[in-house]
């Protein structure tokens, strides 16, 4: 049997930011594999490169060196449209702030990415409605983002991120703006979704209580991804 492919594999990834003197080296030959179905916490102090790592993994930024494999596919040689297509189908991204479209309902926010991908309105609405119901928002489909609580907004953002059935979910402090109780609820919902769909997820968080509930914990030390001890 062929060996299983990582959902995400960073190989010798380097990322520098130019500065007036020497460049700021955020990632230095970082290696990291995320396996299908795994939910991994990324816990590291502010400024160590969590967002940078997630942006590189999510094809939002290119590494300065090294390779990013998504589902086994090397991504650095792809052109912009190839990267966009891969991002749209294979990767879901959740941010600290929901970034929902304010003029659109919860349902429409989850429909939209599917329409962009070419699904019919009926198919997209059906899937959006099922997803939001799974996320506990079956009674909130027609609410605008401004008519939802912070935890509800984040659950819609999670629904939007997975609307196109990606195999990889990247989340950058998805509960960072929420109180501890709501954080736990949103996280538990995300975890249930990941388990139900076999998603691989890498979740940056400063919340150690959440981190401990994930399959394993990694950190960034001197530009490398290492196990958190
Ligand atoms: N576009 C940029 N240009 C220059 N430097 C940057 C840029 N983006 C990030 N940095 C620097 O790179 C380092 C890593 O930033 P990053 O945002 O990845 O940290 P983080 O671990 O996500 O922190 P936080 O927990 O505060 O979100 C920081 O020192 C930051 O100042
Ligand atoms: Mg960050």
TrEMBL record:
Superkingdom of source: Bacteria
Molecular functions (GO terms): ATP binding; ATP hydrolysis activity; transmembrane transporter activity
Keyword Transmembrane helix on entry: no
Entry-linked PROSITE patterns: ABC_TRANSPORTER_1 (PS00211), ABC_TRANSPORTER_2 (PS50893)
Keywords assigned: ATP-binding, Cell inner membrane, Cell membrane, Lipoprotein, Membrane, Nucleotide-binding, Translocase, Transport
InterPro entries per the UniProt record, alphabetical: AAA+_ATPase (IPR003593), ABC_transporter-like_ATP-bd (IPR003439), ABC_transporter-like_CS (IPR017871), ABC_transpr_LolD-like (IPR015854), MacB-like_ATP-bd (IPR017911), P-loop_NTPase (IPR027417)
GO annotations of cellular component type: membrane protein complex; plasma membrane
Residue intervals of the ABC transporter domain: 8-228
BP GO terms, sorted: lipoprotein localization to outer membrane; protein localization to outer membrane
UniProt family annotation: Belongs to the ABC transporter superfamily. Macrolide exporter (TC 3.A.1.122) family.
Protein name from the UniProt record: ABC transporter
Protein's organism: Bosea thiooxidans
């Amino acid at each position: 049997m062929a060996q299983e492919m990582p959902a995400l594999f960073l190989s010798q990834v380097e990322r520098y930011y130019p500065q007036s003197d020497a460049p700021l080296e955020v990632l230095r030959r970082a290696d990291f594999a995320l396996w299908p179905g795994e939910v991994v916490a990324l816990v590291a102090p502010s400024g160590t490169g969590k967002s940078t790592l997630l942006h590189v993994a999510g094809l939002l930024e290119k590494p300065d060196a090294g390779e990013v494999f998504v589902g086994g596919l090397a991504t650095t040689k792809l052109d912009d449209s190839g990267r966009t297509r891969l991002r749209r189908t294979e990767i879901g991204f959740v941010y600290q702030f929901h970034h929902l479209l304010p003029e659109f309902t919860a349902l429409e926010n989850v429909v939209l990415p599917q329409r962009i991908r070419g699904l019919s309105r009926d198919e997209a609405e059906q899937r959006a409605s099922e997803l939001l119901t799974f996320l506990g928002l079956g009674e909130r489909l027609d609410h605008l983002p401004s008519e939802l609580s912070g935890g509800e907004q984040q659950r819609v953002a999670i629904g939007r991120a997975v609307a196109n059935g990606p195999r990889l979910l990247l989340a950058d402090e998805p509960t960072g703006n929420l109180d501890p109780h709501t954080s736990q609820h949103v996280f538990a919902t995300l975890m249930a979704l990941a388990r139900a769909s076999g998603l691989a997820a890498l979740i940056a968080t400063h919340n150690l209580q959440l981190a401990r509930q994930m399959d394993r914990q990694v950190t960034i030390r001197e530009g490398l991804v290492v196990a958190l001890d």
